[in-house]
Every structure is written in structure tokens, then in C-alpha cells.
Amino acid sequence: MSEETIKVVVRRREEQGHGVLVLDLASAEGGALPPFEAGAHVDVHLGDGLVRQYSLAGTPADRSVYRLGILKDPKSRGGSVAAHERLREGTEIRIGVPRNHFPLAMDARHTVLVGGGIGITPMIAMAHALSDAGKSFELHYCGRTRAACAFLDELTAGAFADRVHPHFDDGGEAQRLDLGAVLGKADPGAHIYVCGPSGFMDWVIGEARRLGLPEARIHKEYFQVETDSSGGAFDVVARKSGKTVRVEEGQTIVDALAAVGIKIQVSCEQGVCGTCLCNVLEGVPDHRDIFLTDEEKADNDQMLLCCSRAKTETLVLDI
Ligand code: FES
């Protein structure tokens, strides 16, 4: 989570598609907001300790506002519902400075952007950046129905409308996304970017791999994952605090530590953002996150405390 925050005011609030809150946030002090790169996100502080990450969905060329799209998910852990209920025009909130874990390679010969549902948000910023730079790209927007899709009107009427390809689940076969055809026609050096629900992403990534795209040219951002917290109990020794705590079956390390007064800062609580990263001094973690790379996981010297567990009876942590 970003430590540095900015005070912003909701300048515009609009409901689009099915349950998507589109917000324009301006600096509360006036003037330009800090610059951001396509693919970046901000932490939004929603009150009561709730902090959630949302991708910036506007153009990086416009620093007068940050545009967000927030899907209301009643099954979520409260972040999106709080955003929909609390953020009105004129509301002042704090947000983190933009950070980018999903950078765009501007030197690609061709770029295929694929957004599923609310996963369209980082793709919009990427499309603007590529369009402004005169780069070759295409944007595929997959949604359940036309009516469900936020941002569709601005995309299909904007400066790069000719490169926007909507695909609807309830549409005809001819308009379905055929990744084989898309990549078959694309420059062999093309890069693909995907964001959306995890099942959709698995399908796109699987297709891209099957079609022979090298891993280095498949870029992905998960905004929602289901972490598996099952597994037996184990002990955690907090070396600096001198405390040992039992992590029970079904309990997270974060919750077990909180019970003995050790507060770990969290944000996504899904192994996505890296906020709860901690050094491991002894023992072998059972990594359940999607933040660390496979190489970093293999080193076993750091872990995410919101979701990962232990393969050994005891973990000694640097806290
Ligand atoms: S809180 Fe986001 S990875 Fe743990």
C-alpha cells in the first residue's frame, strides 16, 4: 500500500452499465494530480480502515482528474459497497499516489488489449497511451451484455473507436472473441494484456499460451482472486516481538497475530497487492498468493501473511 496520500474530491459520479460507479477525482487543493502511467492503480481510503485498489481508467495525458470504475459486488468484503454508498459528488477522500504493477511496453510492434467486465479499466488507460503515441493496437472488451458494459459509449465514440471491438456473451457467434484469429492476424511480435474475472483471465492466458505466445509477452492483472485458506494449524514465531502464536485451521496469519496484539497492515487481503509482505527467517511457507513470482516463491524467504500458510510446523517471521 502506498504510504503517501493525496486529498481528492469527487468531481463527478455516474452509474454506468450494471452496477459500475464511474468517478472522476480531482485534487482537493486544485491543480494537477501527480502523473501516472497506463496500467497504474491507486489505493482508495474508504473510511473505517477500508483501503481498496482501483485501476486508473482515464487518459494519462489528463492530470486534472483520475477516473475510476468500481463494480458493486455485494459478495465482496465491503470495499465496493462502501464506495458506492459513501462517495458522492463533493465527497473528500484520501487516495494513495498512483503505483504501477501492470506496466505497458511502449516499444511493442503491436498490442492486443483484452478486458473482461470491469477489467476494462486499466485497458482504457493503455489504449489512450498507445493511441496518443501513435502505436499499433486493438482493444477487445468482453461483457455479458451491451447494457452491462460501463465505458462502452466513450470507447465506441472516442478517438480510437475504430480499434475497439466489443464482444457480448448474448451476441451472435460472429462477434465472439476469437483469440486465435486475433493473434493470427497480429504482428508475430505482439504483446497481449488481459484483466478481468479470474476464469476469464485463465481462458485468455491459456489460449495465448496454446497459440505459442511467449510468457514475456503475456501481461496480466488479477483484480479478484479466490485464495484458498484451507490447511492445518501451525505455529508462527514473531522474532522481533518475541511472541509465538498458533494459527488455527481456517485462520489467517494476520488474524492470529492480531489476536496477540501484532497488527499487520493489509489492503486486498487476497494475496494480490503485496501490502502484507514479510521476511521469513525459518520454516517453509505454503505460498497462496499471486503477488510473488515463481522464483521469489521458490526462495522461501518472504511471504504474504494475509493468505499464505506453512509447510513446516513452525514459521519464524521477521516481525
Ligand atoms: S493484503 Fe494484499 S497481499 Fe496481503
UniProtKB/TrEMBL annotation:
Protein keywords: 2Fe-2S, Flavoprotein, Iron, Iron-sulfur, Metal-binding, Oxidoreductase
All copies of domain 2Fe-2S ferredoxin-type, residue ranges: 232-319
Residue ranges of every copy of the FAD-binding FR-type domain listed in the record: 1-105
Pfam families: Fer2, NAD_binding_1
Keyword Secreted: no
Keyword flag Nuclease: no
InterPro entries in the cross-refs: 2Fe-2S_ferredoxin-like_sf, 2Fe-2S_ferredoxin-type, 2Fe2S_fd_BS, Beta-grasp_dom_sf, FAD-bd_FR_type, FNR_nucleotide-bd, MRET, OxRdtase_FAD/NAD-bd
Protein name: PDR/VanB family oxidoreductase
